[in-house]
Amino acid sequence: MSTETAAVVSPTSFASEYKAQLLKAIDTVDLAGIAQGVEILREAREKNRQIFVCGNGGSASTASHFVCDMLKCASARGGRFRIMALTDSLPTITAYSNDVNYECIFTEQLKNFAKEGDVVMALSGSGNSPNVVSALTYANSIGCQTIALTGRDGGKLGPLAKLQIHVAEPHMGRIEDGHLMACHMLCYYFVEV
Fold it and tell me: Which CATH superfamily hosts domain 33-192?
């Protein structure tokens, strides 16, 4: 063990630096992409199309949060959104994971529900989660509109999507912060405008 002690960073200093880095990360989000996302969601609502959302870990939580906000808040004005989180059926996810493989958990659900013209939105900080890459690949193959929320360099997922909303940041926490902000922008446009 080294006799040198590491510099102790105070919680206030850490929080201040995190906030400063988060503001930089947020500035990388393309607002034209948010506007395009709003139009994709508006068209889906107007044409009575289904919207599917998926992600892993923190991104799964953000997917569920986004769907909750869209159902409760955004559907109160101007019409209802037909939206579901593919992350929310734990029995389905565990059955496919156990009996087939984890990579197919979202794609298999899409095979049951998705149709041409529907919207599939995938969240992945790395952009390389095989199950969300598989979901967007399948969605593209049947003619869905596809949206990816990514971080870092966009990974494999970013180029697959017809619309990528990208948080150009390496830190997973700040990527997820940016994704939640983007989801709130997409949702609350329909609540407040």
Answer: Glucose-6-phosphate isomerase like protein; domain 1 (3.40.50.10490)
The CA distance from 113 to 141, in Å, is 14
The DSSP code sequence of 58-114 is HHHHHHHHHHHHHHHTGGGSSS--EEEETTS-HHHHHHHHHHT-GGGTTHHHHHHH-
The first and second tokens of residue 167, run together, are 């948080």
**Neighbour tally for 162: CB within 10 Å:** 16
- Rounded to two decimals, the pTM is 0.94
* 78, two tokens: 């101007």
- pLDDT, one tens digit per residue, over 50-60 is 999 999 999 99
Supply the angle between the helices 58-72 and 172-192 in degrees, to the nearest 10.
Answer: 10
Question: Which tokens go with 180?
Answer: 């939640």
Residue 78 region by backbone torsions, left for phi larger than 0, else alpha for psi between -120 and 50, else beta? left
| Single-letter code of the amino acid located at 104 | C
14-33 pLDDT per residue, tens = 999 999 999 999 999 999 99
Give the span between the Cα atoms of 119 and 161, in whole angstroms. 11
Query: What is the number of alpha carbons within 13 Å of residue 151 lying toward its C-beta?
Result: 24
